[in-house]
Write the structure tokens for this entry.
Amino acid sequence: MYDFLIVGSGLYGATLARQLKDAGKSVLVIDKRPNIAGNVYTKKMEGINVHIYGAHIFHTNNREVWDYVNRFAVFNRFTNSPVANYKGELYSLPFNMYTFNKMWGVITPEEAAAKIEEQKKAAGIDTPKNLEEQAISLVGTDIYEKLIKGYTQKQWGRPCNELPSFIIKRLPVRLTFDNNYFNALYQGIPVGGYTKMVENMLDGIEVKLSTDYFDDRDHFNSIADKIIYTGPIDAYFEYRLGNLQYRSVRFETEVLDKPNFQGNAAVNYTDADTPFTRIIEHKWFEFGKDENGNDLPKTVISREYSSEWKPGDEPYYPVNDEKNGKLYEEYKALAEKEEKVIFGGRLGEYKYYDMDQVIAVALDKARELVTGTFTICSQ
Ligand code: FAD
Ligand code: UDP
């Protein structure tokens, strides 16, 4: 008998496992994949830590979370500065003075702000009601057309005027020459890869891989007092109210016999015709060096193709629109009746969480389970 069975060894499951174990609870972690770490899993290829389930850059303003992850890994000083490639024209991301200068030839922040205002006015938008209107209000029509429209429609498989505006609010808009993609106090990549970090989090904890909770629910329910479930909430209820929608991603990964393919970790292809959304060149997350500081002769790249999730695919991004929000609330009501089970994480809560947010909610949940008190790490 265990106090807790944790279904999923991603960051939510691993954080709870660590906290509960340290509080003296007995814990078993299972994962249906053959590896730990969920979507932050990295695998070494040609001396390079390849982000197998998509590029992951750790960034946070939350000091408690930053101190927490630094217990398990040393973080390098990587700063995410993707480049946008629109039909061969290269632009800086996020939207900043370099982007505005390249797009319009403007030199000063006043000129850039005036240009955005002029385009916003011409589009006649007062209160943005969807992603398209929000984007035009933030950066004007030219940037929307070249850097947002095609990319977003490929990424989400829906027109921008049917998507919620919060998605685009994730991207900073700056009237400064600052290419840092995130507005975060702390940022970096764990040296040696995320898998090593999660391995450290799970140190001394029993983990069973290639083990699917759904293969023997009755058995798993019988061996623990409580279950922490981090898989998709609709899958738990056998899709009885219908499928929640997710976006899936297919990665085409290639080893190239050259040291440098694109000179940057991420290049976004923002036109509608290029079938992939972006190319990741993994070695640049660690400055092109191996752990001894030597240059790596080869490179590994991944092209990302976005698609609508269907049964059998990996669910990556919850589609947090109104329709899915309503369905999720219905599943949540069912989940609240499952007294033995706690639903958590990106799929368990159907929420577009970043890594730091997932760790924050897991730390709060652990405190609640151990001491019965609610705290505010995730606020
Ligand atoms: P997951 O990592 O998905 O873990 C869930 C685990 O549960 C999986 O290992 C799965 O195999 C297991 N599981 C599911 N069902 C079962 C079952 N029935 N039985 C057993 N095991 C099961 N965040 C950032 O902060 N920065 C980024 O740059 C960033 N980039 C991202 C890029 C992509 C492409 C994606 C999809 C996400 C990105 N994120 C990023 C978000 C980040 O991946 C998540 O916040 C985080 O990994 C979620 O952790 P989790 O534990 O909730 O879920
Ligand atoms: N986005 C865009 N062009 C880009 C990069 C992002 O239009 O070159 C939009 C797109 O809609 C995306 C959103 O901004 O879904 C948020 O981007 P982010 O990089 O945060 O997405 P992630 O892949 O991290 O979820």
